[in-house]
Design a protein that fits this description.
Blueprint lengths: L7 E4 L2 E4 L3 H12 L4 E4 L20 E2 L11 H12 L5 H20 L14 E2 L9 E2 L5 H15 L4 E2 L2 E8 L5 E8 L5 E5 L2 E4 L20 H8 L4 E2 L4 E7 L5 E2 L2 H4 L4 E3 L7 H4 L6 H7 L11 H13 L7 E4 L5 H7 L1 H9 L9 E10 L2 E3 L12 E3 L4 E2 L10 H23 L6 H18 L6 H15 L3 E2 L1 H19 L10 H23 L8 E2 L7 H4 L2 E7 L2 E7 L6 H4 L5
Parallel strand pairs: 1-10, 2-3, 2-11, 3-7, 11-19, 18-20, 21-22
Antiparallel strand pairs: 4-6, 5-6, 8-9, 9-10, 12-18, 12-23, 13-14, 13-17, 15-16, 16-17, 23-24
Helix pairs in contact: 1-4, 1-12, 2-3, 3-12, 5-16, 14-15, 14-16, 15-16
Keywords: Flavoprotein, Oxidoreductase
Pfam families: FAD_binding_2, Succ_DH_flav_C
Protein name: Succinate dehydrogenase
Length: about 575
């Protein structure tokens, strides 16, 4: 008989869930605010997630500090970001991002981060999509990891305990729906842990790995989204996912915009060049290459680039389900100009791009949606629950301007850290947390006990990833989405009915699968509801943008054990800008 029980209880003022840039910033800010902090990270510290592994030729953090062009100001960063998502994102969050990220850049400099500098000592800043002026700051080509390492040193200097390989899977609330703790499992020792805390910060990344191919590490499967959803937090903008091309073997290497300026030739497994099959005669193929950025968008001629890849992946796939990439003869000089870092990474993986064919496929990179936060402090409708980074929803809509992702992590990590620390000082846990946790464990134990079927959990997880990749990638239509949802519902029904063989050793994997199904369903039914095409969301059966009906966010929420679709309209500007009087 299965009887999972609590092995260890840890009390802390603030529990930070996650190990990326937002989580690290939140932990540092909370401990500096005087709170006792604990960090639970599902993988090894500095060994998993998006921040630790992110790479592209353009990877940087955006801040309107005016070092490249003194005309750049936070107000312009605000307008640029709002223009990219107006009608889909919260202007108050956007203003917090744009107005505060210069201070967070200074924080990073103060703790020893050496941004690339000009000869005059000012920071090097680059252009990114949706930016009026150059505003992205970088560190030696791998900005994200450098930020994380710098923050990590400060966290360790402050003596913050980090619980590695610890997957938080259920949030505990009291009778008034306030956070009182969290349940977690050490995925290596199988030890079950109860954190007693009045403040939890979910900063545990996105859900790229509900797809067959994705960047980041395999544990990014939507735990934060699912845990928030189970407490009634809306999941918003989930249909908007950044997807684009990458070299897929021997491991994923994202191929960003500069790579395509070198005009690699893409062929299917029959040796046929793919673009001429799908690019209309009135479209210049050279312009398709020129317009190509990461991720996929319907908004330029580069539309034909990614859709051609998906069609040929499906029709004549390479051994691992992609297309073949080869460099044009005599491209050495342009490669050195445009993609030196990518070339170096591929070379380190054993691929000589001037001699070898390499497999290219579409991969999931970033979730633009997330669990809805109500204020710039990352507050949710559940008191004591704060959300930051890619787990948070309301700041990213159809498009996400380059450099904003790392900026979000620093701004909202800092804000949630301070807010969670303040909350913990004002709220002590008076209810019986152990009893509430045991009540949550009881149905999970019953579920494992009755799961004595013969279906294989790992096979089901892979089938979900394959299903999402086949039916909810960039080419979407009613038939594909219906097939995706049908498969998800079948897996969900089988899991709940005990048709899988589960035991205590597979407990954490089974919980992950539950969370993957919630997240995947939220993506699919949001994509079904949006009967138009916009930016990274392409409906083949509704190919036009519909501004009349669809400048609004879709969100899903749990009501009576069902996932319900609703919509939300956002204001055009933040409140104080709307109330300004211009004389």
């Amino acid at each position: 008989m299965s009887n999972y029980k609590i092995d260890r209880i840890i009390e802390t003022d603030v529990l930070v869930v996650g190990g990326g840039g937002a989580a690290a910033r939140a932990a540092l800010s909370a401990v500096e605010a005087g709170a006792e902090i604990r960090v639970a990270v599902k993988s090894k510290w500095l060994g998993g997630g998006s921040t630790a592994t992110a790479f592209s030729e353009l990877l940087a953090i955006a801040a309107a500090i005016g070092h490249a062009d003194e005309r750049d100001q936070p107000e312009i960063h605000y307008e640029d970001t709002l223009d990219a998502g107006r009608g889909f994102i919260d202007p108050e969050l956007v203003w917090a991002l744009a107005s505060e990220v210069p201070d967070r850049i200074q924080d990073l400099i103060n703790i020893g981060l050496n941004f690339d500098k000009q000869e005059n000592g000012k920071l090097v800043q680059g252009m990114s999509d949706f930016a009026t002026y150059p505003r992205t700051c970088r560190v030696n080509g791998v900005t994200a990891r450098h930020i994380l390492v710098a923050l990590s040193k400060q966290i360790k200097n402050n003596g913050v305990p980090i619980d590695e390989h610890t997957a938080v899977f259920k949030l505990v609330t009291d009778e008034n729906n306030n956070i009182s703790g969290a349940l977690a499992i050490n995925v290596e020792t199988k030890e079950l842990i109860l954190y007693k805390t009045p403040s939890v910060i979910l900063a545990c990344g996105g859900a790229q790995h509900v797809y067959k191919y994705a960047v980041g590490t395999a544990e990014m499967i939507g735990n934060g989204y699912a845990m928030a959803y189970e407490l009634g937090i809306p999941l918003i903008n989930m249909e908007f996912i950044q997807i684009g091309p990458a070299a897929i073997k021997p491991s994923i290497t994202l191929l960003s915009g500069p790579v395509w300026r070198t005009k690699p030739i893409l062929k299917n497994n029959k040796g046929e060049e793919i673009f001429s099959k799908y690019v209309p005669s009135h479209i210049d193929i050279d312009n398709v290459y020129k317009e190509k950025v990461f991720p996929f968008t319907i908004s330029s001629d580069a539309f034909y680039f990614d859709t051609s890849i998906q069609k040929e992946m499906e029709a004549y796939p390479t051994p691992n389900g992609g297309v073949w990439g080869t460099m044009p003869p005599g491209s050495e000089e342009i490669v050195e100009q445009n993609m030196p870092k990518t070339n170096g990474v591929l070379k380190a993986k054993g691929i000589d791009i001037f001699k070898d064919q390499f497999e290219v496929a579409l991969i999931a990179q970033c979730m633009n949606g997330g669990a809805l936060i109500e204020t710039p402090d990352g507050l949710t409708k559940v008191p004591g629950l704060f959300i930051a980074g890619e787990t948070a929803g309301g700041l990213r809509g159809p498009d996400r301007p380059g450099g904003n992702s790392l900026a979000e992590g620093q701004v909202f990590g800092h804000r949630t850290g301070n807010a969670a620390a303040a909350h913990s000082k004002q709220h002590t846990i008076t209810s019986n947390v152990e009893q509430a946790a045991a009540k949550l464990l009881a149905p999970l134990n019953e579920w494992i006990e009755k799961s004595i079927g013969n279906k294989d959990l790992n096979e089901a997880i892979q089938s979900l990833k394959d299903n999402m990749y086949k039916n909810c990638l960039i080419i979407r239509n009613e038939d594909r989405l219906n097939a995706a949802l049908s498969h998800i519902n079948e897996l969900e029904k089988a899991l709940n009915a005990g048709e899988f063989k589960l035991d205590e050793s597979s407990f954490s994997a089974a919980i992950d699968f539950k969370h993957m199904l919630i997240t995947a369903k939220s993506i699919v039914i949001s994509a079904q509801a949006r009967t138009e095409s916009r930016s990274c969301h392409f409906r083949e059966d509704y190919p036009e943008k519909d501004d009349t009906n669809w400048i609004k966010s879709i969100y899903v929420v749990e009501e009576e054990n069902e996932m319900i679709v609703k919509t939300k309209n956002w204001p055009d500007q933040r409140k104080d800008k709307r109330n300004e009087v211009h004389l």
